[in-house]
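Hi support team,

I submitted a single chain yesterday and got back a structure, but I'm not sure I'm reading the token output correctly. Could someone confirm the output below corresponds to the sequence I sent? I've pasted both exactly as they appear in my results page.

Thanks,
R.
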Amino acid sequence: MRESTGGTRERIKSVALELFTEQGYEKTSLREIAERLNVTKAALYYHFKSKDEIVSSVVEDRLELMDALIAWAESQPASLDTRRAVIGRYADAMFAGDEPSVMRFFEQNQTVLKSLAAGQQMRGRMLRLAAMLCRGDDSPAAQLRAVLSIFAVHSSWFAIRTPGITDAERRTLALEMADELLAPIGTGRDAATEAP
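Hi R., thanks for writing in. Yes, this is the structure output for that exact sequence:
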């Protein structure tokens, strides 16, 4: 493994996610990760002391992406164009590079994420992102629409089971659903549904 430390860590995370998704987190050992990488367990241990550290590193990468997106969203006006741009940028990030394998891992290993501090931080970031999506409309319907629009991006990885669908088609469909959810925010169209 004669790569830069950063490149090696990325390769380890990628291979570990592959194995976690194929076999499950609990059934995958550090030894199996090292074997798939064709390195010794000691070489792997130099970069990550445990499977939890690998997952935490993956989640921390995701948190950095979300923090940047939230910061950008905060600097924009509360409008439908901004909401569309935020969810579009979020989808871009979730469909780029290794993110599809990250999304599949997250979907298949929910209990692992809930037990890690980094996984718990993810929930907070998701709620902050949803708050950016419904900024200017604090109605319960707007809050739910904002969360569901994010979930439209996430759920496209496991809810769409059409054989042969491409990642681009999956992304397009997810954004179409998200847009349907986001469009009424701030328009007052949900007011009738909130009456007791």
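A quick pointer for reading it: The two ends are 64 Å apart (CA to CA). Let us know if anything else looks off.

Best,
Support desk
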